[in-house]
Amino acid sequence: MCSNYINKEFCASLIDKKVYIWGAWERGRFIQCELLKYGIDIEGYIDSDKKKERYGVPEKKVSIPIILQEKECFVIVSLAEHDSVYNLLEQYGYKEYRDYIYPAKDIQLSNIKHNYLDFYGNRIEGNIDKANVTIGGSSELIIGKNVKIADGVEINVGWNSKVIIKDNASIDKNVSISALENSYIEIGKKTQISSGGHFRATGGSFISFGDKCRLGMSLILRLDHNARFVCGEDCLFSYDIKIRANQGHSIFDLANNKVMQDPNFSKIGNHVWIGMGVSILPGADIGDHCIIGAESMVNKKFEGYQTIAGIPAKVIREQTDWTYEVQSYEEYIKSVK
User: Fold this and answer.
1) Which of 12, 77, 283, 308 could form a disulfide with 263 if both were Cys (CB 3.0 to 4.6 A apart)?
2) How wide is the angle at C-alpha 286 spanned by C-alphas 280 and 292, nearest 5°?
3) pLDDT for the residue 2
4) Cβ partners under 8 Å of residue 157, min gap 6
5) Exposed e or buried b for every residue in 137-153, given b needs 16+ CB within 10 A?
6) CA dist., res. 231 & res. 271, Å (int)
7) What is the pLDDT of residues 4-48, one digit of tens each?
8) 3-state DSSP assignment of residue 331
9) Is there a cis peptide before residue 312, judged by omega within 30 degrees of 0?
C-alpha cells in the first residue's frame, strides 16, 4: 500500500496541529501508521460508532463528530465519500486543505489527453479523452499507446488501486472496469474487450489478461476479498461468460464449527477457447490450448490440450487444439512448427 500525499512536506505542516482521523477502521489505521513514520502522533479518531472507545496502533481514543465543533483540529478523512461528512465539515467551518483532507473522495474526470496528477497522489498516464474516469485514494490509471476506448466506457480506480491498459488494446461501448480497495487490473497488449463487459476487483483482488485476448460481449468478472484471476495470452472468449474467483460470502461448516476454506483463485492458460455462456468458478485452473464447450461450468483443474464440457465440466476429448481460422490438418501442423 502507499499514500503519496503523506510525505515529509505534508507531515511538516502538521507538527503544531491536533490531528484526528475520521474513520476508525482499516484505512484509518493505515493512515495512522504512515503518519507515525514521519513522527506525527494523532490526537485520536472520529467515528459515529459510539460503542467503539479506542482504536489504532497504538490505540487512540475514538470520539463522535461533535468534537470538531469543540476543538481546532486538522482532520484526515479515511472514509469513502459521503455527503454527510462534507455537510458536517462545512457546518463546523472546515475548509479542504486548510483544515481537512479527504484522500478517498471520488474525483471524476474526462477529456484527459495528457498526464494527470493531484495532491492526493492520484495519477493518470495516457489519453482518456473518451472514457468517464473516477479516481481516488492515491490510485493510478495507466493507458498505453494507441489504446482505443469507446465513448461512455466507465473506469473507476479507488483507494490505492491500479488499472493498466497496455498498448493497442481496445475497449468497446458500455464496458465498466473497476479496481477498488487496494486492487489491481491489467489488460494486455492488443486485447479486445467487446461491449457490455463488467470487470470489478475489490478488497485486495487481482485481475490480469495477457496479450492478444478477444473478450466477447457481456463478459462478467467479479472478484473480492483478495481473490486472484489470471488469464494467459491469445485466448478467445465467446459471449455471456461469467467468471468468479471466490464465493464472495462466508460459508460455515456447522458440524465442525469452522469457516469453509474455498479456493480463492481461477486461472486460464494460453490459447484457450471458451464457448458461450460458460461459468468459470473458484478453483478453475484451465491448461493451455483447451476448448470449453458452451454453457459449461468449470470449477477444477484441467491439463492442456483437452476439450471439456458439462455441468460440472469433464474431459470429453484428449489431445485437441484449435485455431481462429478454418484450416486443414496439414495447414495446422505447418503453423505450429
Assistant:
1) 283
2) 65
3) 52
4) 133, 134, 135, 136, 139, 140, 141, 163, 178, 179, 180
5) bbbbbebbeebebeeeb
6) 10
7) 789 999 999 999 999 999 999 988 999 999 999 999 999 999 998
8) helix
9) yes
Q: Which residues of the chain have pLDDT under 70?
A: 1-3, 50
Between the alpha carbon of residue 21 and those of residues 77, 206, 291, the distances in Å are 6, 28, 52
pLDDT single digits (tens) 126-176: 988 788 999 998 899 999 999 999 988 999 999 899 999 999 999 999 999
| 216 in Cβ contact with 239 (< 8 Å) | yes
Residue 125: which residues within 8 A CB-CB, separation 6 or more? 115, 140, 141, 142, 143
One-letter amino acid for residue 117 of the chain: L
Largest Cα–Cα distance of the chain, in whole Å?
Answer: 83
C-alpha cell at 254: 456447522
* pTM (two decimals): 0.88
Residue 240 main-chain phi, psi, to 5 deg: 60, 40
- Grid coordinates of 248: 464472495
* Closest residue by Cα to residue 80 from 134, 125, 43, 128: 134
Give dist(CA 22, CA 175) in Å, integer: 34
Nearest to 263 by CA among 249, 282, 279: 282
In the block, residue with C-alpha cell 457490455: 196
Question: Minimal CA–CA distance to 212: which of 189, 230, 242?
Answer: 189
CA atoms within 13 A on the CB side of 283: 10
